[in-house]
Amino acid sequence: MISALPHTRKLLCFTVVLLSQALAASAFGERPPNVVIFLADDQGWGDLSANQNPNLNTPSIDSLARDGATIEHFYVCAVCSPTRAEFLTGRYHTRSGVYSTSTGGERFNSDEETIADVFQMAGYATAAFGKWHSGMQYPYHPNARGFAEYYGFCSGHWGNYYSPMLEHNGQLVQGEGFIIDDLTNHAIDFIREHQQKPFFVYVPYNTPHSPMQVPDANWNRFKDKDIVPDPSSANARSEKVNHTRAALAMSQNIDENVGRVLDCLSELDLERDTVVIYFSDNGPNGSRYNGGMRGRKGSTHEGGLRVPFFIRYPQKIPAGSVLKQVGGAIDLLPTLADFAGIKHNSKKPLDGVSLAGALESNGAVVPERLLFSAWKQKASVRSQRFRYQSNGLLFDLSADPGETVDVAEMHPGTAKRLSDALQKWLRDSKAENGVKPENRPITVGHPQERQTQLPARDALPHGQVQRSNRFPNATYMTHWSGNQEDRITWEIEVLEGGEFEVEMYYACEASSVGAELELSFGEKKITTTIGMPHDVPLVGAEEDRVLRQEGYVKHWASMQLGSIELAKGPGTLELRANGVETKNVADMRLLMLKRVNRQR
Fold it and tell me: Cα-flanking dihedrals φ and ψ of residue 335, to 5°?
């Protein structure tokens, strides 16, 4: 069972203290700094000209290093959602319930406090624009986690980057134009509208994650470009040149959009008053230039975990400075709270430490620390000099940044010390986490949420029903017939019971008109018939620069299924078709549940 209210109680507990801090600062005429954070998706350390990649030019992102600081060895997780959890909470994802990148496993626990909670309670206007990938339903939705404004998509990847279906504060909407340009437009609009008070703006772009789609203006600069391989890396032997070209074109598009936000801050005379951060969520999604590092996305070696990191804050950070001390996504909450003058008193101990003092003093000595990472059956620990892998390999990164020579026998004391620390961390974080996937149903009917989206990615197919692709995030259900074994189910927990209107987003041929659909939860059920065909083609292939692994999508229509009463508690929500003589009743993309009234 999942409680709906601990997060709300915790927020109220801190509100009075933090608001009083913000009001005290304003009374002395001090304005706390604004914060803008860019997070790229699947962009490697080497995908920027600031890191000596000779194949592209990224002047806007590079300017953050020139005018601010670089953390030379900055670490995130091997894949997307764990990094987001660690950035948002300042705690390792292994402690907070993240165990996969889809179907509910991307959610960090609802009692975790987020960086947006901290800044919102300190009086900031908070917003996120882009790929959330930390939960779709309340209390995991961005609007429930400190972001008053949200525009983007909550899944791990999206199937179409041109005017796609997105959401705005829980309402489904259609995007406008190329998604990165669109997200940037919304971020700029928010900054302009809130320029008179401190703002915290998080812009998690979803590129260069596949599908590899990018505007012609960017692609045309790379489609015939000779790519210089990384001479010091095994990546050159397995590089797929067209994929690299697309990733670099997408990175250049990101740079242009970062430049637009920086220009907006300059125009509004907010440059000196704004902390701007740029980093990525994991290593590159392909074998390409990455500074000779071993591994890529999914790896717990340097190439999978080390990403670019730049921070600009002219009031306090010297231009062109370089921090040699290792840092990571877990450090951003305490670091930014320090820059904003927010006294953060979390009920749960943070794993991150504040790097504000080191950044202000251009690399002051920070006590040596260990940074841990785990994904699937792999784990590693990074000290200032070494990286130790859970399989017993030890690498001296000061002499061997490519992790080519195991030095465990040369440094047995170091190997044992790091092995013991890694095993202790794995035991402690697993014990604290305690999450079992079968005990984490999808939440419906949170008291603060009027509507809940239940996508196909969170559902289970039965009988002949199939998911449209093995990567769940942007999928739909298909091959759904009237056979009694054919059904689609969601394991849910209703947090507050009541009556809900149900809307289904679908596509179907004319032969399906008149088919009866039945939705049930316990003893309650509703039936309706398909009244309108919606036979539309798959979209996305024409815009792809490289053949994708993920599935294609459609432009979905919606139909009303009726109103159903959902009792508080766990259960199975089931959708089936009755007595239909067809191989596919419909392709089902999602259900939208809208509360009509509450249970008495």
Answer: -65, -50
CA 406, 409, 414, 420 dihedral sign is positive
* pLDDT 10s digits, 188-206: 999 999 999 999 999 999 9
Q: For residue 66, tell me if it sits in a domain.
A: yes
Determine the 3-state secondary structure of 538 from DSSP. coil
Of the candidates 433, 450, 469, which is a domain's last residue? Answer: 433
In sign, the C-alpha dihedral spanning 226, 231, 237, 240 is negative
Parallel, antiparallel or unpaired: strands 516-521 and 524-529: antiparallel
Buried b (16+ CB within 10 A) or exposed e, 62-97: bbbbebbbbbebbbbbbbbbbbbbbbbbbbbbbbbb
Domain-embedded: residue 1: no
pLDDT tens figures, 245-278: 999 999 999 999 999 999 999 999 999 999 999 9
SS (H, E, C) 37-77: EEEECCCCCCCCHHHCCCCCCCHHHHHHHHHCEEECCEECC
pLDDT of residue 229: 87
Assign residue 403 a region (left: φ > 0; alpha: ψ between -120 and 50; beta: otherwise): left
Q: Which domain holds residue 539?
A: 441-598
Domain presence at residue 387: yes
Residues 470 and 548 in one domain: yes
Q: Are residues 486 and 540 in the same domain?
A: yes
403 in the same domain as 530 = no
CATH of the domain at 20: 3.40.720.10
CA pair distance 427, 439, nearest whole angstrom: 20
Taking CA 64 as the corner, what is the angle to CA 61 and CA 66, rounded to the nearest 5 degrees? 115
Residues of the chain predicted below pLDDT 50? 1-29
Judged on CB neighbours under 10 Å (0-12, 13-18, 19+), 446 is: buried
Asked if 224 and 349 sit in the same domain, the reply is yes
Handedness of CA 11, 136, 184, 227 (dihedral sign): positive
Distance CA 238, CA 248 (A): 17
Q: Is residue 237 part of a domain?
A: yes
Helical (H) or strand (E) element with 587: strand 587-598
Q: How many domains is the chain partitioned into structurally?
A: 3
- 191 dihedral zone (left: phi>0; alpha: psi -120 to 50; beta): alpha
Which of 367, 386, 419 is the last residue in one of the domains? 367
If one counts every other C-beta atom within 10 angstroms of the C-beta of residue 230, the result is 22
pLDDT for the residue 21: 47
**Are the C-beta atoms of residues 75 and 326 closer than 8 Å to each other?**
yes
337 and 463 assigned to the same domain: no
DSSP-derived secondary structure letter, 31: P
Q: In this predicted structure, what is the pLDDT of residue 598?
A: 84
Together in a domain, 420 and 271: no
Query: Do residues 345 and 251 share a domain?
Result: yes
H, E, C per residue of 293-315: CCCCCCCCCHHHHEECEEEECCC
Long-range contacts of 16-22 (CB under 8 A, 24+ apart): 17/343, 17/345, 18/118, 18/121, 18/122, 18/123, 18/342, 18/343, 19/121, 19/122, 19/123, 21/122, 21/341, 21/342, 21/343, 22/122, 22/123, 22/124, 22/198, 22/342
Q: Report d(CA 449, CA 445) in Å as an integer.
A: 7
Same domain, 356 and 220: yes
Angle at Cα 456 formed by Cα 527 and Cα 555, nearest 5°? 90
**Angle formed at CA 120 by CA 119 and CA 122, multiple of 5 degrees:** 65
The count of other CB atoms within 10 Å of the CB of residue 221 is: 15
For the chain, counts of helices (H) and of strands (E): 12, 29
